[in-house]
Amino acid sequence: MKQLTRLETREDNLLDLVTDEDIASKAAQGRLRDIAVERRTLTEKLTRTDVEVRERAEHVLTTFSYFATRMTSACPQTQA
After folding, report:
1. What is the pLDDT of residues 41-67, one digit of tens each?
2. How confident is the model at residue 20 (pLDDT cuts 50, 70, 90)?
3. Is residue 12 within 8 Å of 6, Cβ to Cβ?
């Protein structure tokens, strides 16, 4: 997330320069494209990480549920 914020700041600064100076230089356009590519790469990486975390969390919850069920059936509580 910090990297995405940094990219947004760089992009905003470039856009301000282009707008303020009314310059649409090839260098600025190239830098804006580079920022867009980096943003897309970071977003894709973040999405993959999110999916991995969700899958692992589901596995942990399933495993926990399995062992909780086994513990409950192995150690029945006595009724008073």
Report:
1. 999 999 999 999 999 999 999 999 999
2. low
3. no
What is the pTM assigned to this prediction?
A: 0.58
Assigned token pair, 17: 């320069």
What 3-state class would DSSP assign to 22?
coil
| Crossing angle (nearest 10°) for helices 26-74 and 2-21 | 160
CB of 6 closer than 8 Å to CB of 35: no
Question: Which token pair is 22?
Answer: 């009314």
Interatomic CA distance for residues 60 and 30, integer angstroms:
45
The first and second tokens of residue 78, run together, are 């006595």
- Rounded to 10 degrees, the C-alpha dihedral 37/42/47/53 comes to 160
Query: Which distant-in-sequence residues (6+ apart) come within 8 Å of 4 by Cβ?
Result: 39, 42, 43, 46
Q: Are 39 and 7 in contact (CB under 8 A)?
A: yes
